[in-house]
Amino acid sequence: MQAASAKKAASAKKTASAKKTASAKKTAPAKKAAPAKKAAPVRKAPAAKKVTVAPKKATARLKGAAPARTVVHPPSGESRTALVRRARRINRELAEVYPYAHPELDFANPFQLVVATVLSAQTTDLRVNQTTPALFARYPAPEDLAAANPEEVEEILRPCGFFRAKTKSVIGLSKALVEDFGGEVPGRLEDLVKLPGVGRKTAFVVLGNAFGRPGITVDTHFQRLVRRWQWTGESDPDKIEAAIGALFPKSDWTDLSHHVIWHGRRICHARKPACGACPIAPLCPAYGEGETDPEKAKKLLKYEKGGFPGQRLNPPQAYLDAGGKPAPPLGAG
């Protein structure tokens, strides 16, 4: 009896405890919900920068020009292999545009070429070609110019600018030819650069065009274009020569120099390149720096006096403009 009584009491205790707990749960104040976080303001993405894209086809009006067939967008960080391919393709395109590219200085022998090249500094080839006939008529050989009266030479060279310094150089190099090389222009780079007024640029002009020995002529046009095309970032002529020489086989160096220089004089001008009439526009990372409208760009083109570049070597190929008239003369050196 006592055991049953104890069990009942325990059971009642448990029931009362359970009821108390349930009641407490019901009456306990509910926890306040955490306030919602404010949404971060949505920022608008900056407008994409407008990029000028080169046309798929070039609009150059030059006879024999072959526009690039596909558009290539050279990346700023292109690989070495991609750079070599692009550079060589540009040279091939220019070779089709300027098939008769050659030195634009008139000369009949290595002596005349080295003198004319020295005189071409800081002036146009056209001006030099107007001046040298009188000079070579009076002093046809190194021995004649070496013994010349400086004042008489200065008078002839006055139209070329810096005529006093140039007179000193051409008389000095003539004396060196007579005294050190038997009156003959040497065919080695190390000998040519010893002549007064002759640097590597002049030496390579002579080697490539008088002796058929490959060389890269790094003049102002060449420097400007290879940097514009991102072939190199160098600014020192010797470093540019080394950098560009590494992109091409040695056999291409002389013609490459002519192609680049001719293009710089006729289309890819320093201040306002004729981008809209350029046959290599699809390959050029600087497309858009100049005039891109084809008609306006066409007015910026410059040609040799009398016709298409190279007409002297192939008269039947004379170039006529869209109106059937002879092309205008080349206006820049």
Keywords:
mainly alpha, iron, disordered C terminus, 333 residues, Endonuclease III, domain 1, DNA-binding, HhH-GPD_domain, globular, DNA repair
What would you say this structure looks like, in words?
The chain is globular. The relative contact order is 0.13. It has a single domain (80-317), classed as Hypothetical protein, domain 2 (Endonuclease III, domain 1). 46% of the residues lie in helices and 0% in strands. The protein is mainly alpha-helical and 333 residues long. It contains 13 helices and no strands. Helix 6 (150-157) packs across helix 7 (163-181) and helix 10 (220-228) packs across helix 12 (253-266). It has helices at 2-27, 80-97, 110-119, 125-138, 142-146, 150-157, 163-181, 189-192, 200-210, 220-228, 237-245, 253-266, 294-298. The model is unreliable at 24-31, 59-72 and 305-333 (pLDDT under 50).
Helices and strands in order, then pairings?
Elements: H1 2-27, H2 80-97, H3 110-119, H4 125-138, H5 142-146, H6 150-157, H7 163-181, H8 189-192, H9 200-210, H10 220-228, H11 237-245, H12 253-266, H13 294-298
Helix pairs in contact: 3-9, 6-7, 10-12
Percent of residues in beta strands: under 5%
What is the number of domains? Answer: 1
| N- to C-terminal distance | 132 Å
Tally the helices: what do you get? 13
Return the string of H and E elements.
HHHHHHHHHHHHH
Q: Estimate the global geometry from the Cα principal axes.
A: globular
Provide the CATH superfamily. Hypothetical protein, domain 2
Question: Which structural category fits the helices and strands?
Answer: mainly alpha
Oligomeric status? single chain
Q: Kindly identify the CATH topology.
A: Endonuclease III, domain 1
The biggest beta sheet reads:
none
- Evaluate the radius of gyration: 39 Å
Give the CATH level 1 class: Mainly Alpha
How many strand segments? 0
Overall mean confidence score, pLDDT: 79
InterPro entries: DNA_glycosylase (IPR011257), Endonuclease-III-like_CS2 (IPR004036), Endonuclease3_FeS-loop_motif (IPR003651), Endouclease-III_FeS-bd_BS (IPR004035), HhH-GPD_domain (IPR003265), HhH_base_excis_C (IPR023170), HhH_motif (IPR000445), Nth (IPR005759)
Organism: Streptomyces chartreusis NRRL 3882
Cofactor: [4Fe-4S] cluster
GO molecular function: 4 iron, 4 sulfur cluster binding; class I DNA-(apurinic or apyrimidinic site) endonuclease activity; DNA binding; DNA N-glycosylase activity; metal ion binding
